[in-house]
Amino acid sequence: MMKKTLIALALSIATTSAFSQNIELKNSLQQKFPNTKITSAEFVKEIPGLVELVVDRNKIIYTNKEGSHFVIGHVFDSSNNTDVTQARIDSFTSYNFAELPFNDAIKVVKGNGKREFAVFTDPACPFCKKLEQEINKLDNYTMYVFPTPFKPEGQAIMTRMMCESNPANAWTNYMLNGVEPQSGKMCGKESITRTLALAANIGVSGTPSLLAKSGKMQPGYAPADKIDAWLNANSK
């Protein structure tokens, strides 16, 4: 019993010490970069000297304890072929899918429509078009397209598209086949403004970004098989 108590006490002290160290590290880096909102700072156990910074709630960048050098990108564990950075993002990134403002989205249904997800996307974004090609290879989904055009040219196309009698067809024709919207009018500016604000609020900083019904985010381009597996795992 005494041995178990000592082990528990040692673990508690080690945990408290690590927590204090992380707080000091966070405060030190926050003072150095006052214009960046640092959520947490802690050393990456597997890589000596590397510090994981969580900024703006759910973005991860890497630095050293002095904050003199930065690494932008994902860390991979070659021993089990896992994306360590994405696993960390998934652990604290979640949003209530049911609370999305679906009236601001273009609804695209394929097959039985059972697998629901949202995509924050820009018609002027090349990787968004590549993602659309991959999504089109799948079946049985309902996709809510939230117009997130960060570029002016994307906003121009999107507002014309939302004036079409069937915006879903207009979206698919443009993204898959390059068919320009026929309408010369502009609609949906308010929806675009609201979506851009929503994207900023839930941590979408770039397009494309997928959001599953489970609340999990899948940022960036991905091939069809990866999207399919991700939808199957996160559609409930």
Overview of the molecule:
This protein is α+β, with helices and mostly antiparallel strands and 236 residues long. The protein has two domains: 2-92, Disulphide bond isomerase, DsbC/G, N-terminal (Nuclear Transport Factor 2, Chain: A, Roll), CATH 3.10.450; 97-234, Glutaredoxin (3-Layer(aba) Sandwich). The chain is built from seven helices and eleven strands. It has helices spanning 2-32, 84-92, 126-135, 152-161, 167-177, 189-201, 224-234; strands spanning 38-43, 51-55, 59-63, 70-71, 76-77, 82-83, 106-110, 115-121, 141-147, 209-212, 217-219. The strands form three sheets. The protein has a five-stranded mixed beta sheet. The longest helix has 31 residues, at 2-32. The N and C termini lie far apart (44 Å). The relative contact order is 0.12.
Main beta sheet: strand number and arrangement?
5 strands, mixed
Any idea what the radius of gyration is? Answer: 22 Å
CATH class value of the largest domain: Alpha Beta
Report the principal-axis shape: globular
- What portion of residues belong to β-strands? 15-25%
Q: Helical residue percent?
A: 40-55%
What strand line-up does the widest sheet have?
7-9-8-10-11
* Full CATH superfamily name of the largest domain: Glutaredoxin
Q: Could you say how many structural domains there are in total?
A: 2
- What is the tally of beta strands? 11
Quaternary structure classification: single chain
